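question for whoever is on the cluster today: can someone run the full assembly for these? two chains, 264 residues total. i dont have access anymore since they changed the login thing
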Amino acid sequence: MRGVVDACFLIDWSRFRRRRILEELFDVLLVHEEVLGQVRSEVTVEYASSLLAKGVLRLYPWSEADEVEFVTLRSQVSSNSRIPSLERPDLLCLIIAYNSGAVLLSENVGVHRVVEYHPKYSRVRVWTALDVIEQSVYRGLVEVQSEADFLRVVKEYELDTHHRFRRDRIERSVGRVRAWLRG
Amino acid sequence: MSEVTPSQELLRKWEEEDREAREIRRRSADWDFIRRQPPRVRAALIYFIERGDRYVAAKIAGLTVDEFNEIRMRAKIPVVV
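^ ran it for u. tokens below:
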């Protein structure tokens, strides 16, 4: 499976005690060089470097055509006050995911909102860390025997990164895991 | 350039999500820690509590997103997704 990773996801995921599952779930993670430029802390730099060294994280070859798409998308989303500010690297990730058909890994509320309404980019699959954990369960990368086991792993992520998943998001995820556990 | 606009229903849903997330961040924050910070960082943390936007908050603080994230975690302000 191919993914695209944005800066905040990389920053947060690098602090997760089970961060290894990402490289087992994805064959390739594409990243724009400007995203890497936002990474500064030792833990994130070390994590990104290790993924690059393993060949899992790869630089996306940005083109002039991609740049034209960026200018169009930026003008379309920059004026909406309900969409948190989207920095250039976030929009680049969205364009890379659209053009490569890869899953975009992002917890940026603005990115999630763009794909909720934008006629073109609504086809992009955007996963939060919760979605990554859920998919890892289905692929046997995280072993869970019950809903409680699943919620324990989710809580680990929340504690390690100081995140809080919305209740409705967790309920939907738990519902799918419950159905999967029942076979 | 063509206009792409979310529906009123989506805007109302987002408004409610923003309100809930703001309440969670306000309740969880370590306000003593925030009050002890230098003015720019303090302003950035308060902005983050209100809007949940790490990029703008980092700019207010004069830090990178990664650097601001370290301070956010010490201030016990969750990212609500």
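summary bc i know u wont read the tokens: The CA atoms of residues 43 and 60 of chain B lie 7 Å apart. The longest helix of chain B spans residues 8-28.
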